[in-house]
Amino acid sequence: MTSASAGPALDLLRGRRLVVLTGAGLSTDSGIPDYRGPGSVPRAPMTYQEFVSGPAARQRYWARTHLGWGRMRRAEPNAGHHAIATLDPELLITQNVDGLHEAAGTSSMVALHGRIADVVCLSCRRTTARAQLHDRLTAANPGWAETHAALAVRPDGDVDLEDTDGFVVPDCDACGGVLKPDVVFFGENVPAPRVQRCYDAVDALGPDGALLVAGSSLTVMSGLRFVRRAAKAGTPVVILNRGATRGDDLATCTVDRGCSEFLTALARAAEVSGLSRAPAR
After folding, report:
1. Which of the residues are catalytic?
2. Which of 43, 141, 169, 211 is deepest in the core (most CB within 10 A)?
3. CA dihedral sign of residues 72, 77, 78, 81
4. 224 neighbors 19 (Cβ within 8 angstroms)
5. How many CB atoms lie within 10 A of CB 273?
6. Other Cβ atoms closer than 10 A to 196
7. How many CB atoms are closer than 10 A to CB 11?
8. Residue 145 burial (CB < 10 Å; 0-12/13-18/19+)?
9. Is the pLDDT of residue 45 over 70?
10. CA atoms of 217 and 120, how far apart (whole Å)
11. Is 262 within a domain?
């Protein structure tokens, strides 16, 4: 069942225990562009194999993402993030790395692809704050941000910049190893314990619960597998997204709308019925 109206989906979800799966479409109202929504420009993010191929690739990556993250980190949670925090689902599974669900106060969640605000050393595995590396990059590359201030931020938190010659990339200050954002690149696998926690939450829903997908085209298997799992078990699946998704054929109900308005309405309905477990924001 596909509907531009929120009514059928709201009726289906009302009173059910929820697992929520979110994608980049949820963060567009916070000023972060998505990958595959209407009007999005097709692009191929850097793969893990390319990142570890040598210094030139890492220079290109960090030069671009230094510019983007300096602005992306100022993004604030939107009404959709706050609505999900208010709903307090059994588990929130997010494919986003922007940290906005955490900022909104969601209590039970799995950041499936990691967090862009963390940095890991590929040698000693020490994890540090991205803000710390941002300051080191700024000091090592004076004037870089000002020179390229007009470039627009892309979904990965980088910018479209070809000339990155001369950009200085610091190594790990503990062991001299290669630094990488603590996110899952294309070509990497999501850690198995994260996936299993998500499977367990979806499996526990049963036919009386529901899986709600918000703002994901489900193009990659990392999210689609949970929709397949729920549908196979007879758990209702509601997909809320602008445009078609790879999981539409498995959905009980799809809603072709933006996320914030629908999620706010769902949170209000839960509050009115006394089913919301978190305080209103």
Report:
1. 113
2. 211
3. positive
4. no
5. 10
6. 10
7. 11
8. middle
9. yes
10. 29
11. yes
One-letter amino acid for residue 279 of the chain: P
Does 120 fall in a domain?
Answer: no
Dihedral of the alpha carbons of 148, 151, 156, 161, in degrees to the nearest 10: -60
Burial class, 208, CB count within 10 angstroms (exposed 0-12 / middle 13-18 / buried 19+): exposed
Residue 150 placed within a domain: no
Neighbours of 172 (CB within 10 A): 20
Q: Read off the CATH number of the domain in which 235 is found.
A: 3.40.50.1220
Q: What digits encode the pLDDT tens for the residues 264-280?
A: 999 999 887 655 554 44
Side chain identity, residue 262? F
Alpha carbon distance 26, 160 (integer Å):
22
DSSP letter at 248 equals: G
Q: What is the number of other CB atoms lying within 10 angstroms of the CB of residue 278?
A: 18
65 contact partners, CB below 8 Å, separation of at least 6: 156, 157, 158, 181
- CA angle (178, 118, 74) in 5-degree steps: 125
Q: Is the pLDDT assigned to residue 4 strictly greater than 60?
A: no
Contact (CB, 8 A) for 96 and 78: no
**What end-to-end distance do the CA atoms of the chain give, in Å?**
31
Q: Is residue 118 part of a domain?
A: no
Give me the amino acid identity at 240. L
* CA 210 – CA 202 distance, rounded (Å): 8
Handedness of CA 270, 274, 279, 280 (dihedral sign): positive
Q: How many distinct structural domains can be found in the chain?
A: 1
Tell how strand 253-255 and strand 114-121 pair up: unpaired
| DSSP letters for 21-42 | EE-GGGGGGGT---SSSTTPPP
pLDDT in tens, 159-169: 677 788 899 99
